[in-house]
Amino acid sequence: MGLPLIDIDRELAPLRDELLKAVARVLDHGHFVHGPECQEFEQRVAELCRAKHAVGCASGSDALLLALMALQVGPGDEVIVPSFTFFATASCVVRLGARPVFVDVDPNTYCLEPRAVADAITPATKGVIPVHLFGQCAPMKPLRQLAKRHQLFLLEDAAQAIGARYQGELAGSLGTAACFSFYPTKNLGGCGDGGLITTSDAALAERLVLLRSHGMQPRYVHQAVGINSRLDTIQAALLNVKLSYLEHWSHQRRRNAERYHDLFHEARLDQIVQLPTEAKDCHHVWNQFTIRVPERRDALRQHLTDAHIGTEIYYPLPLHRQPCFASQVADDQQLPETDRAAEQALSLPIFPALTEWEQRMVVSQIGRYFHGSRSRSGKAA
Ligand SMILES: *Cc1c(COP(=O)(O)O)cnc(C)c1O
Q1: Whole-angstrom Cα distance, residue 58 to residue 168?
Q2: Domain check: are 127 and 235 in the same one?
Q3: Deepest in the core among 6, 86, 196, 311, taking most CB within 10 A?
Q4: What pLDDT digit, counting tens, does each position of 54-82 carry?
């Protein structure tokens, strides 16, 4: 039936009994909100990320919003963000009445370009949200130096990067705080929505706990105007099951990425499309395998769709061009690398259970598109 971009059934099927048992335990004890599975999950993610605290919430988007609320971002503040990212990285800033300042990305990693960040800093800048895009950490060392010099917070958007490392340190422990998402397509995907914030700042963690429950402490006394954003106990129970497999899945994603590199090279396609690379200092966890197609990307995508191979464009319209942010962006704002990435990026299947045979099929279809039958006879040789 063709190859989807991501096959969640293949991930869930072997875990079905374990997942059902975990749900049954929650049904039996009945603590559906902030039950024991929630604390267990928070503690395990904190340990995994080498952060002191972890606070669960309803989604990655809420994690970003809560973190900015806890960091007291508000009107008059500027927060530097990439434009080449998912919407939630910037919407949280706007929701709080602050201004997102969009900057360009590195053409090889698609992560924030530190020099562009430095140029965007003004007296109103309160912080930076580096996104660990596609599973690879942003260049945190130069960003930390900037943050320190200008007294800015660094909020990692690690939604796509649980388990990723930078200079041996884990995503989630690299900034002031970090946000994770358990949306089903992420490397640790739940069965629905979920999110979490890590931090090693005890006061910040305490504020996050307050803010996710209407600022209520004690019961029916509200210390702050928070929101209602919780990670359900059932969701935490499911995530606890899946968390035990995360390291294995990351390993499989890395093997798949390596295999694509070999196959594209063998087919002499690595000169025609640009393959994603692992930056020095980085341990990539490959949430996406995103190639760059210099010309006619959409025609290649159509060819793959016709061959029943699922692909996606992350992201076709950069945030500085979104209609809802028009009033936030200067008319003369130029982000050439971001625009080029939006025109050329194409994400291929990389999910853990992807087989070598399927990867060969993807590469051979791309070869067929570029070389006609030449690559097919090459393959048979
Ligand atoms: C998925 C994602 C989010 C938002 O997470 P949700 O759980 O879907 O709300 C934020 N930032 C990035 C980079 C993401 O990929």
Answers
A1: 29
A2: yes
A3: 196
A4: 999 999 999 999 999 999 999 999 999 99
